């Protein structure tokens, strides 16, 4: 029997910064009918509420953020600008509202649209709020180790679009594959209104 490559719940229960780094190079899979859309994760951002002022959970436990307070390994999907869905994976221990935003993918299978930004990523992978709360360890969407994994040269920078978070905005909690052309944008290149809308600020 071939061992499953799907990430176990224990992976998501790790320290959130560790998860954000180790997700780079993993494959996000969404099974739709008999087909699969697969993308290689090349950019993430870590959020560690409630202290982290850039995190949704800094505003407390609400109907919107309830998933973040639940067990690790679930999807937290929300809408920004009334248009773009964003996918996070819930991390750390149950009751600790941490999550990692998936910011960009490198298309692998069944993905033909742009994936360089959390909004475009969800659009290309057909991910919407119906998947909010989905268990990534059981169901039609999951993250797995690729069959042939290679070492990732990891870069890091402050998170994108969270200037309102004060000192928290300077935390270098954005991680990306330094060699991937699919990263949403350079750490130093200012975002245009179009890239902010499609790429999203994540929070």
Rounded Rg = 15 Å
User: What is the global morphology?
Assistant: globular
Number of strands: 8
- Architecture (CATH level 2) name: Roll
The CATH topology name reads: 3-methyladenine DNA Glycosylase, Chain A
**Arithmetic mean pLDDT:** 90
The succession of helices and strands, N to C, reads HHEEEEEHEEEH
The CATH superfamily title = Methylpurine-DNA glycosylase (MPG)
Straight-line N-to-C gap: 42 Å
Structural class: alpha+beta
β-strand amount: 25-35%
CATH class group: Alpha Beta
Please, how many helices?
A: 4
Helical fraction equals 10-25%
Describe the sheet with the most strands: 8 strands, antiparallel
Flag low-confidence runs: 187-203
Instruction: Kindly report the oligomeric state of this protein.
Output: single chain
Number of domains: 1
Give a brief description.
It contains 4 helices and 8 strands. It has 203 residues and is an alpha+beta fold.
Question: What features would you describe in this structure?
Answer:
This protein is of the alpha+beta class and 203 residues long. The chain has a single domain (9-197), classed as Methylpurine-DNA glycosylase (MPG) (3-methyladenine DNA Glycosylase, Chain A). 13% of the residues lie in helices and 29% in strands. It is built from four helices and eight strands. Strands 1, 2, 3, 4, 5, 6, 7 and 8 form an eight-stranded antiparallel beta sheet that branches. The longest helix has 8 residues, at 118-125. The termini are far apart. Mean pLDDT is 90; it is low at 187-203.
């Amino acid at each position: 029997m071939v061992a499953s490559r799907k990430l176990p719940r224990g992976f998501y229960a790790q320290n959130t910064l560790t998860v954000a780094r180790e997700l780079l190079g993993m494959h996000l899979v969404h099974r739709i009918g008999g087909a699969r859309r697969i993308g290689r994760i090349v950019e993430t951002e870590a959020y560690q509420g409630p202290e982290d002022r850039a995190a949704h959970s800094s505003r407390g436990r609400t109907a919107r953020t309830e998933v973040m307070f639940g067990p690790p390994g679930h999807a937290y999907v929300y809408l920004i600008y009334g248009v773009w869905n964003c996918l996070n994976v819930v991390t750390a221990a149950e009751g600790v509202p941490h999550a990692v935003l998936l910011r960009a993918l490198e298309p692998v299978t069944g993905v033909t649209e742009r994936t360089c930004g959390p909004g475009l990523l969800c659009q290309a992978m057909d991910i919407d709020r119906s998947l909010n709360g989905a268990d990534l360890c059981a169901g039609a969407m999951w993250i797995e180790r690729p069959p042939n994994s290679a070492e990732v040269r990891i870069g890091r920078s402050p998170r994108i679009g969270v200037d309102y978070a004060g000192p928290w905005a300077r935390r270098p909690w954005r991680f990306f594959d330094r060699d991937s052309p699919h990263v949403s944008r350079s750490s130093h290149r200012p975002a245009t209104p179009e890239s902010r809308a499609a790429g999203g600020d994540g929070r």
